[in-house]
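Quick one: structure for this chain?
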Amino acid sequence: MSKVIDYYMTLISPWTYLGSQRLAEIAARHGAEIRVTPVNFGEVFPRTGGLPLAKRAPERQAYRMMELKRWRKHLGIPIKLEPKSFPTNDRLASCMVLAAGETGGRPLELAQAFGKAVWEQERDIADENVCKTVAEETGHDGGALLAKAKEEATQQRYDRQTEDAIARGVFGAPTYVYKDEIFWGQDRLDFLDRALSEG
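Got it. Here's what it folds into:
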């Protein structure tokens, strides 16, 4: 495929989850490949001027909640606004997504399933058993992906992708990069769609 979208994301971002299906549909319509690239935004934020949610001003936190309500209604995606399992450590699940991509699996589908687990089902994807089960629910070999996710090479790749994301100018999730043009946020998907239409 000549059209490639680098998809920088974290599984524990509601915005990543809200945009994931539309991204898949846009890519399919344009015959574009999606390179699913989970990164550690706990490293990205402090180096790019961002703050984790808990450290943001109350006004910003309140507006985020308002926007989540708007987008939930607009898209018809029944996310929980404050899921029991948020925040949580998504490193293991992210590495399982990488492992799926390296072993002929379906990384985008797995990433979407992890997002649904957090934002609709209130499951804790820091838990190994949950990760294994979610992978199996998508038709993957959960045990094999879990084992590969724990390998040093996979862990190092996750860290390397985080550094690469920062070097490319990524500062928030989700970020879509097409032809070195950055589109930050699921509310920029229309612009990504137009860019793909232009070639």
